Amino acid sequence: MTLPVLGGCHVLRTLRKYTTVPVILLSAKGARQDHVEALEAGADDHIVKPLKPHELLARVWDVVRRKQRNRIGSGGPVSVNDVVLSPRTREVRKANVPVDVTTLEFDILNILMRAAGRVVSRNELSTVLHHGAARRLGRTIDVHISNLRKKLETDDQTLIRTIYGTGYLFVEHDGAEET
């Protein structure tokens, strides 16, 4: 079934004026020119119908992985509360004092700080850290979160909160616990 009035590429060009949300264009048109036109219009991928559900899922994860990789690896330093994270130098500072973190701890902290104030699920962390392949990691992420807490938090300052059954939240305010 095609769009009734405007073609998908026209709709996509209009959409791209307002957002960079990932788009996978599903089309019955399979010519090379149709594929090129979809990508030039701003599609993140172009899939010809019919397709198998597992192919669609794999393509969705591929787009998510590329978007997440670009988001994690790009951007300047991020500062939340008194923690500063610098992606280019892969350095973390708390109250202007360097904090030694592992590669995986840095990546987790980068994701959490860029999403400060929003809950990040364990599955989302796993997907981003493993490039689109959500893996059953047992308690691996929890252990790294625990290590980050030991390195960054004090008795009167909580920076990373566990939202049980959901994920983790990097707090946006000073994180002082109320007594």
Q: What does this protein look like?
A:
- The structure is a single chain.
- By secondary structure, the protein is of the alpha+beta class.
- The chain folds into two domains: 8-71, Response regulator (Rossmann fold), CATH 3.40.50.2300; 76-170, Winged helix-like DNA-binding domain superfamily/Winged helix DNA-binding domain (Arc Repressor Mutant, subunit A, Orthogonal Bundle), CATH 1.10.10.10.
- It contains six helices and nine strands; from the N terminus they run αβαβαββββαβααββ.
- The chain has helices spanning 8-16, 32-41, 53-73, 103-114, 122-129, 140-152; strands at residues 24-27, 45-48, 78-80, 83-86, 91-94, 97-99, 120-121, 160-163, 167-170.
- Strands 3-4-5-6 form a four-stranded antiparallel beta sheet, with helices on one face. The protein has a three-stranded antiparallel beta sheet with strand order 7-9-8.
- Strand 3 and strand 4 form a beta hairpin.
- Helix 4 (103-114) crosses helix 6 (140-152).
- The protein is elongated.
- The relative contact order is 0.10.
- Residues 175-179 have low confidence and may be disordered.
Task: Please describe the topology of this protein.
Blueprint: H1 8-16, E1 24-27, H2 32-41, E2 45-48, H3 53-73, E3 78-80, E4 83-86, E5 91-94, E6 97-99, H4 103-114, E7 120-121, H5 122-129, H6 140-152, E8 160-163, E9 167-170
Parallel strand pairs: 1-2
Antiparallel strand pairs: 3-4, 4-5, 5-6, 7-9, 8-9
Helix pairs in contact: 4-6
